[in-house]
Predict the 3D structure of the following.
Amino acid sequence: KQEVTQIPAALSVPEGENLVLNCSFTDSAIYNLQWFRQDPGKGLTSLLLIQSSQREQTSGRLNASLDKSSGRSTLYIAASQPGDSATYLCALYNAGNMLTFGGGTRLMVKP
Amino acid sequence: DVKVTQSSRYLVKRTGEKVFLECVQDMDHENMFWYRQDPGLGLRLIYFSYDVKMKEKGDIPEGYSVSREKKERFSLILESASTNQTSMYLCASSLFPPVPGFSDEQYFGPGTRLTVT
């Protein structure tokens, strides 16, 4: 069964820093990988979707990479801002449209 | 833009009550999903549906049932609510039914925070 791990579980950085969030998975037979943002008490906002044939996706200050062979994905956030404070979730699509989520990284960006 | 809506953002119910959580999507999506999210346990799949009147159990179906009478609407039912069903419930939908070698993006609703007292 697919297992998804996100490290670190929590991260606090000063504003302006570049940072990397990590996601690792045990089964490389994945289809897509998606990064979400979740604000406290709210639903999920999709940030980036990487299809299995791709190695990375970029949107503004965000860049996500995927290395299926090593079972890893990273989310890079450039020039972090207090508004980036949220929980970031990594999720993998397996056969049959099933999603497996990681536990999330809770990010705090301090002014 | 895909829009997935959930009938309530916050809900408070008493133990033993029958509870209905409603989810509606407006993009003619084939698949719909119900998850619950709990601290330390992450998001877990309760039930999903690939078509009208069709349902499949997810990882934690015990204590829940679902109904999909129309393509755009997927209801989660707690037949007799219990305190351990206090949680955040998230609905999602995706366009295509499962096809070998292909997986389709899921779109999430805003969530319903249910408290059972």
Summary: The mean pLDDT of chain A is 93. The longest strand of chain A covers residues 44-51.
